[in-house]
Amino acid sequence: MNGDIGLWAVPLAMIGGAIRVSTPFLFVSLGEVITERSGRINLGLEGTLVFGAMAGYALAYLTGSAWAGVGAAALAGLLFGLVHGLLCSLPKVNDIAIGIALMLLGTGLAFFFGKPFIQPVAPDLPAINLGWWSDLPQVQAALRVNVLFLVGAALAVALAWMLRKTRIGLTLRVVGDSSDAARALGIRPARVRILATAFGGALAGIGGAYLSLFYPGSWNEGISSGQGLIAVALVIFARWSPINAFFAALLFGAAGALGPALQSVGVTQGYYLFYAAPFVLTLIVLVLSSSKSGALTGAPRELSITK
Amino acid sequence: MSAGVEITAPARSARAWLVPLAGRAEGVLLPLAALVTGFAAFALFLVLLGKNPWTFYTLVYQAGFGTGFSWTNTLARAAPLLLAALCVAIPARLGLVVIGGEGAIVLGGVMAGGLGAVLGGWPALIAMPLMALGAALIGGLWIGAVGALRQWRGVNETIASLLMAYIAIALMNHLVEGPLRDAASLNKPSTAPLAEALRVGDMPGFSVHWGLAVAFLACIGAWVLIERTTLGFSARIAGGNVRAAQVQGLPVTKLVVGFTALGGACAGLAGYFEVSAVHGSANASLAAGYGYTGILIAFLARHNPLAIIPVALLLAGIEASSGLVQRRMELPDATMTVLQGFIFVAILASETFTGRLDLTRWLSRGERA
Amino acid sequence: MAADFLTRRRFLTTSAGLAGAAAMGLPARAQGGLTVGFIYVGPRDDYGYNQAHAQGAAAVKAMEGVTVIEEENVAETQDVQQTMESMINFDGASLLFPTSFGYFDPHILEVAPKYPDVRFKHCGGLWTPGMPENVGSYFGYIGMGQYLNGIVAGHMTSSKKIGFVAAKPIPQVLLNINSFLLGARAVDPEITCQVIFTGEWSMAVKEAEATNALADAGADVITCHVDGPKVVIETAAARGAYVCGYHADQSALAPELYLTGAEWNWATVYTDMVAKTLAGEPIPNFVRGGLAEGFIKMSPLGPAVTDAARAQFEAVQAEIMAGDYAVINGPLADNSGNVIAADGVSYLETDVELESMDYLVDGVIGSTS
């Protein structure tokens, strides 16, 4: 545990933070990319994330297997996504509003059922040590990478390929760009959107399980500090691209590590402002990447928020 | 809204009166039906958990509305909720979904606390309106900025307002624990306590502060603005179809910025009353989540400022009963959040029946027959 | 002016209403005996602040003739005022323990005058003459516990750097940080303590990041002062650092690396106050106690603790128990060089000056703003 690395601690902590903190953002935003590509927006992923964190932790504790927890979280997220997808398929039902309602419901249910699981200790997800080549404990710690992070990275590539090269991807894009065109091709847009939202929900659930089962690795009512919501914002500035979403999540994780890292090298003034860095950063990027006409490049044309 | 009165009016023809009423009845009946559905679904949830829903709802009634104390409790909670709901409902007229009212509340509170510290020696008649104005101004600027970003940069207002709420809370913490901190506020960093003369007191006769009356007035004022002025009319057109509004030469940008700012000003005012009537200084307790409950209320009230009043009372009553339910039924504190979630989902899902519950057509069909 | 709303007559109506409720099969409030209400700001099983109080409440539950009612997650807003009044009006509570610091001013001070027959005992507050007589405050000298933590940490650190994850730079927290470092410096004056403020009492991700940042900076013994230390303890242990507990016993979370911990022992305080109330005896308005009085206790030393550490820990603990032990001894400067205790000046745990501490002592890396 020795070795003072001075100011290098800041960039190193940010790399470590990017890897540690980004995974929930990554999963939620990858899921939301797919959902939004189909022309729907699900703002309720924050609730799904929190419920996934609870369900994952509870199941991991009860079964003794962290992976069972991840499965449970994905399933719970899938159900929330299905509910969102089905409700929004009813005519005149607003997807943004339903998202807000499900955020409330998901969080409420998670806290309701999560009470007995605040205290127990559930098994953690395993991590892979990619920092074996270094003698510095700081480097080793920063590069202790969770399997889910790698899965997420692979998923980003796979989804990008899927969107571009496969029939499923084409279907999604058609539905997202025009319901009428989709119908003309014999595709049922409602069904595609329900499935896309369910998929997004499942990924958000996994993102939640990462929070409770790896980092910070415990279930409590303050487990999420808005990760689910921010991830939805990240999708917009990732321009609905899975690869961009990966980098956006990394950037955001790194910004989140800035506050504590600066304090550890002696920059101690105004830490609240440093803690707000991720939010400010997202807002700035949103402002820069939006355009007056509202017609964002790459935006699915059926998406309510860009209309 | 005032259906009962009009029905009893001596009718030229009962139907002639009923038809226009029936057209509006849907706006009341549908949310009511959805509310009942939400309550019923939650009752089922309780039954599945082996809890008695009858006991639950009786306790909610008891602690929210059953006694004089319950009413005090409910009304005292309602004031910030009413103003927070207006922050959602007013921009909603333009089709905007603003969910970051919490940010305007905390900044309004900080502004009130900060001004109060500076204006300590001033006469209350000048200082108090200045504090309230300052709070409304900062709230208006904050949420107005969301509207401006939307108009000038096309930034989605829902997400921007939420991000800004997080930023506002960080700013509040920074100010309250840094530049604005009163050195005497030891273990609870706060701005300097307001002079007694600058505190907002209770209304005569019951222990609910004046903020409630102001909130009622704000709801009524917002209703008049939206329903009875050309400005409100233009806003509704712009909310329905921006292109059409622009073609008609309506000042869409001014409307968007103005309405978001007005909503934000209401939320800022809520912060003012929290500081001057409840806390006596600005501190981290300002971020109490009223802004988020306000979203639910506004949607339940279908963004009608008058309907916000009964809905906010209902929600405040439900929250007021949370403690008793927790203590008597051994249900966790999140129970009320779950109930709110059920109601919220039911209300939104019910929108799908809008227009299908056409009493007007049913009545006129009767006429023809 | 608020008091007159709840006149005697109204209160009787309330009771009658409740009797009616009981007839409908509602869980009735306790009949006879003493009802004691506990109010928590967070969940009861947080491995921390609230759990420590809930353990005290559990000891009260075991007492004859006492009914305990509890409510958790009660915000430091109007909420807590309503919860107190609800416990009094609906459950007949006559002794209340609102346990969070932020409940005191203004909330308890607001409600207490309305109910002169109810006793309000607050944890951490500074009751001063002139405040309502039915209000009192109690607290424990837990800084001594952090000093003992520091002694063990001083023996166990090999990097000569120890770490502290803190919520906010307020006197109670600063005293703990300073005590932790001074304990370690009693072993080796070269040791430094890095502190990182998370800014929130409960914020899991920030606590984990702060702990990692401390480990990255080379700290190899870590403790904390946040509401729920679970995340800090687990994260520090995962980094291979030794941990010292706070609030409650966290040894189960890191059996090998847990050295010891500074724990509250509220059972002593609560059972004593309840017994006095039952006997109709007065309770002093200002109650303080430390290790000797059984207000705080240390977790059993963990398996990693060396013999040398154990010996010094036990010796100092015995000295503290004997009384008149001072942690802050001159000459002592703060970490920006200002003298805080001249040569020959000492502050005992009982000195009220310590309750307004606003500095970090020399050797602590961090700042108070």
Automatic annotation (TrEMBL), chain A:
UniProt-recorded Gene Ontology molecular function terms: transmembrane transporter activity
Membrane-related topology note: Multi-pass membrane protein
Keyword Acetylation: no
GO (cellular component) term, any one: plasma membrane
Protein name: ABC transporter permease
InterPro entries xrefs: ABC_transp_permease
Location relative to the cell: Cell membrane
Annotated TM spans: 6-29, 41-60, 66-87, 96-114, 141-163, 192-213, 271-288
Species assigned in the record: Pseudoroseicyclus tamaricis
Keyword Transmembrane helix: yes
Location, primary (coarse class): membrane
Top-level taxon of origin: Bacteria
Pfam families the UniProt entry points to: BPD_transp_2 (PF02653)
Protein keywords: Cell membrane, Membrane, Transmembrane, Transmembrane helix
Signal sequence extent: none
TrEMBL record, chain B:
Entry's localization field: Cell membrane
InterPro entries attached to this UniProt entry: ABC_transp_permease
Organism the protein comes from: Pseudoroseicyclus tamaricis
Domain of life: Bacteria
Membrane topology: Multi-pass membrane protein
Protein name stated in the entry: ABC transporter permease
One CC-aspect GO term: plasma membrane
Classification via CDD domains: TM_PBP1_transp_TpRbsC_like
Keywords assigned by UniProt, alphabetized: Cell membrane, Membrane, Transmembrane, Transmembrane helix
Record-annotated membrane-spanning stretches: 28-49, 78-96, 103-124, 130-149, 158-176, 208-226, 255-273, 279-299, 306-325, 337-359
MF terms in GO: transmembrane transporter activity
Keyword Transmembrane belongs to the record: yes
Automatic annotation (TrEMBL), chain C:
Domain annotation ABC transporter substrate-binding protein PnrA-like: ranges: 35-320
GO cellular component terms, semicolon-separated: plasma membrane
Keyword set, alphabetical order: Signal
InterPro entries registered for this protein in UniProt: ABC-Purine-Binding, PnrA-like, TAT_signal
Pfam families: Bmp
Protein name: BMP family ABC transporter substrate-binding protein
